[in-house]
Structure formats: C-alpha cells, structure tokens
Design goal:
Protein name: Heat-inducible transcription repressor HrcA
Strand content: 15-25%
Largest sheet: 5 strands, antiparallel
Keywords: Repressor, Stress response, Transcription, Transcription regulation
Function: Negative regulator of class I heat shock genes (grpE-dnaK-dnaJ and groELS operons). Prevents heat-shock induction of these operons.
CATH topology of the largest domain: Beta-Lactamase
GO molecular function: DNA binding
Oligomer: single chain
Number of helices: 12
Strand order of the largest sheet: 7-3-10-9-8
CATH architecture of the largest domain: 2-Layer Sandwich
Shape: elongated
Domain Heat-inducible transcription repressor HrcA C-terminal: 111-333
Length: 348
C-alpha cells in the first residue's frame, strides 16, 4: 500500500483498529498492544482478533512493531493515510485564538508581530514555531548619522512605518560632525519616500550626471550609508524560529539523538526556508511527515506550514510548526491555519 491508497481499501474492522492505534500512539507516543485495544468500548473484538488485524495492517506497511514483543505504532505511511483520510480536525478554542491574536495586536514593526505569533503558536502546539518573513524593502523617511568616535558613526534609518534601525558605519579619515549632518540632511531630502534600491539608483544617476551638490567627503558618506543598508537588507534573515525548547520533554529522553539532529537542522535556517518555499505556491496548508522531505528525514520530524497573504492578496510568507511525527495533527493543523489567516488580516 502507498501513501495515496484510499481508506476505502480497508474493511470496517481494519479501519477501526488502525484509527485507534494511531490516536493512542499520537496521545502517548507509545506502541499500542492488542490487549489495550480490546479493553476499549469502541471495539468488540478479542485480543487474538485484534492481533490478526494489526498483523494485516503491518503487512500493508501502515503499522510497525519496534520490538518483537511490543505493540504496534503507525509508520510514516500510516500517519499520512490517517491525516489525509481519517483525521477529524478540531477548531482552535476561543482561548487559543485569543492567545494567537494577542501578540499580533501590539503596535510595532511587522517582524515583531510575526515573532509574537510564532512564539504563541509554539507554546500552544508544544512544537517549534516557524515563520518566513516577507522580503520587503522599507520605504525611507529619514536618515541620521551619530558620531561614536573618530572612525565610526551610528547610521540611523527611519522608515515610513515608524520603524527605526541602527548600524555602525566605518568613516573615512577626516570626517567632521558637520559633514555627517550635511550627508544626513541630503539623504533625508533626496531619498524620502523611496526604497533603498530606488535611492541607490537615484544617487548613481546624480553622480553620473555630476548633478550632486555634495563635496567628495559627504558624497562618500552618502554612498557608504546607502551601501550598508542595502547590504543589510539583502542579508536580512528570512526565517524566525521560536520555541525550540518545546522539542525537549520527558518523552524525548530515550530519543536524544533524534532531538539533537532536529535542533541542528533548525540552525540551518536557509535550508528550512527552501523547504517552506514549496508552501508559497499553494493556497492550503502543507504537511510533511518524516522522510517525505529530505531535510528532516534523519530526525523523523513533521512540518505543518500554511501560507499567509499581503495587502494585495498575494502569498508573501509561510507560518507553521516543526515537531515530532507523533504530534496532535487534528489540533495543530487548524491552529496553524488560524494563525496564517490572522497574519493575512494583519498584513492588509
């Protein structure tokens, strides 16, 4: 049986046993024995009958026995079949929705809202929360240079959205405070309302046509200021990860190597970003289970990711969680969906 085989190919007895094994495993993280299932009111089967059904499911590749005498647990193929064909999703509770919305209600740069939403999602799901930050160029409002010493100054950029960012700038020899003021005033007057890319193009055109009113030293300052901000924008992190500590709990004591591998993978944010970019093309939540993606094949982790949209309705980023394959899909998937919808409303 393949992950795309429909549930209709299982008879009613096999479906009932399979569903109870998966639900029990996702709740406890432990293999499920036939005797345990026989005590459930939902089944009126003897332990022997249940063992036979579980053996059939194992032969189909849906269940596996970690040890000869142990119970059964779902394989990644089984989890995929359960998520696609049997799972009954539960909408986020009012308390969960309020927790997600609370972080987004605070005023400030969009990155802070995205970080708050990711932290809330991480806490509610007990997974690591992830969000891809939309690549955007700030629209400029004002520049400033604050001297630190003879060789360095603080370059201050104020965006139209009220965001303020600072970078340390190395100064050419002989720069005076008056030159810093001249360069800052020139940049604020000429580049307000532009993006960094537009400001750089505008400056290059002025220099080429020799229409700049600046002398050599001040012109050098302006070029350095634009360059440091443009370089910073290109290198800006595109991924926020929060809540890695949730991946280490009492249930991971016997599986520390898997957790170590997962934490190492979370450090490679560019690799995760490439994985999440596959969710940018769709309009629905994507679920990657274990080895379905190469990045997390060693740690056996699952990724649930949903796209969110910008003011023009286009997909601009992805929000989601990373956790063990035995996470509560029925609860977490709708939670990720709601977070993506909330972010979409915020971006309008």
């Amino acid at each position: 049986m393949t992950p795309t085989t429909p549930m209709t190919e299982l008879n009613d007895r096999a479906r009932d046993v399979f569903r109870l094994v998966v639900e029990s495993y996702l709740g406890t993280g432990l293999p499920v024995a036939s005797r345990t299932l026989s005590k459930m009111a939902a089944l009126s089967l003897s332990p022997a009958s249940i063992r036979n059904v579980m053996q059939d499911l194992e032969e189909l590749g849906l269940l596996a026995a970690p040890h000869t005498s142990a119970g059964r647990m779902p394989t990644e193929t089984g989890l995929r079949l359960f998520v696609d064909g049997m799972m009954q999703a539960a909408l986020p509770s009012a308390e969960e929705r309020r927790a997600i919305e609370a972080g987004l209600a605070e005023a400030g740069p969009i990155e802070e809202a995205l970080s708050a939403a990711t932290a809330a999602l991480s806490g509610l799901s007990a997974c690591a929360g992830i969000v891809m930050v939309p690549r955007r160029e700030p629209v400029l409002r004002q520049f400033g240079f604050v001297p630190l010493n003879d060789r360095q100054a603080l370059a201050v950029l104020v965006g139209q959205d009220g965001s303020v960012e600072n970078r340390v700038l190395d100064l050419p020899p002989g720069v005076s405070p008056s030159m810093l003021n001249e360069a800052a005033n020139f940049m604020s007057a000429r580049f307000a309302g532009m993006t960094l890319r537009q400001a750089g193009d505008h400056l290059a055109q002025e220099m080429e046509n020799e229409r700049s009113a600046l002398d050599g030293a001040a012109r050098d300052l302006v070029e350095r200021g634009i360059a440091i901000w443009s370089h910073d924008a290109d290198d800006r992190p595109v991924l926020i990860v929060r809540g890695q500590a949730h991946l280490i709990d009492d249930g991971t004591a016997a599986d520390l190597e898997r957790v170590r591998q997962l934490l190492e993978q979370l450090e490679g944010k560019q690799e995760i970003s490439r994985l999440l970019e596959s969710a940018l093309a769709g309009s629905a939540t994507k679920i990657f289970i274990g080895s379905e993606n190469k990045l997390f094949s060693l740690s056996g982790s699952s990724v649930i990711a949903a796209p969110y949209r910008g003011a023009d309705g286009r997909v601009v980023g992805v929000v989601g969680v990373i956790g063990p394959t035995r996470l509560n899909y029925a609860r977490v998937i709708p939670m990720v969906d709601f977070t993506a919808q909330t972010l979409s409303r915020l971006m309008r």
